[in-house]
Amino acid sequence: MANSEQHIASAFDRDLEAIQAQIMKMGGLVEASIMNAAISLETRDEELAEQVRKGDKAIDQLEELINEEAARVIALRAPTAIDLRLVLSVMKISANLERIGDYSKNLAKRTGVLTQMAPVSDSAGALRRMAREVERMLKDSLDAYIARDAELALDVIARDEDVDQMYTSIFREFLTHMMEDPRNITACMHLHFIAKNMERMGDHVTSIAEQVVYLVTGDSPDEARVKADRTSIDV
Predict the structure, then answer these.
(1) What is the pLDDT of residues 136-164, one digit of tens each?
(2) Is 135:97 a contact under the CB 8 Å cutoff?
(3) CA nearest neighbour of 134 among 47, 188, 208
(4) Which burial class, exposed, middle or buried, applies to 135 when counting CB atoms under 10 A from its CB (0-12, 13-18, 19+)?
(5) Burial 187-201 (b: 16+ CB within 10 A, else e)
């Protein structure tokens, strides 16, 4: 009986390692998608934007594969409560990664539209800096997941407030440009859509970090997140 249980545990570990490898592959694709979308916006590179849009399909396919493998593990391995928590966390993380990929694709869709309009101040640079922070948070949250590092995950959660503040600052800047010159309104509305998508990306990255905290400690983060974004406009 002991040998049988050991064999099941070994098979579960192998299955989980394979799924986690897919999670890291998916995470890498999403990280690249975020930065390429921001670069395409800043440099007005429509070809790079098209690569981002097409690349979202691979991210979606990985989520489907991870979900299928996780479901198979649950059905065949009958994991313990702790192991089940681990498998379910993988599914939740992949779902968040898929949503981040969708938002990144949405960013890339705006590049073609904005190339037809005059640039608005340093908005593209500000958005790229925001995207870079989200991408760094995502990398750290995935590193925290692999290392089972709750402290790093908590640090990521805290940094979401920085992203919210960046969004609020950009939003106010767009309002100023629209009030100063009505010709900026259309471009600023597109740029606001992009900024809001990036802010939402930060929320999903934070959800990944919260999953890591739960996975390591068995509890959700102690304090509810305080959103620094106080704007009422939702896109």
Answers:
(1) 999 999 999 999 999 999 999 999 999 99
(2) no
(3) 208
(4) buried
(5) bbebbbbbbbbbbbb
